[in-house]
Amino acid sequence: MAMKIRLARGGSKKRPFYSIVASDSRMPRDGRFIEKLGTYNPLLPKDSEERVKMNMERVKYWLEQGAQPTDRIQRFLEASGEVEKKTRANMKKAVPGKKAQERAEEKAAKAAEAAEAPAEEAAAEE
Length: 126
Fold this sequence. Notes:
Distance between the termini: 84 Å
Helix content: 25-40%
Strand content: 15-25%
């Protein structure tokens, strides 16, 4: 059985509240779970103690049993110091898309033509 430690959403519309749960990966996000391990309230300030609460003993137990944390849970564990930080690299994040690159090239070409035109006129006058 493939186990996951993940968030199960609760709360009302536009007021999210999440439970941190250990569940079978085949179950739906808000569906059946095996054990509730904590809570996460994203509406609280980032420095609040109440924002993320986890029963670390049970989380460690499930990790030892082979449960895989989701990305968000992995970040919570890294912040608490339970798991060593993973290096993440998204090298393409800052690179603009193809269309934006084409527009930038066209703009640069027009700017180069505009810069050359006054220089040619000055040379013709002399």
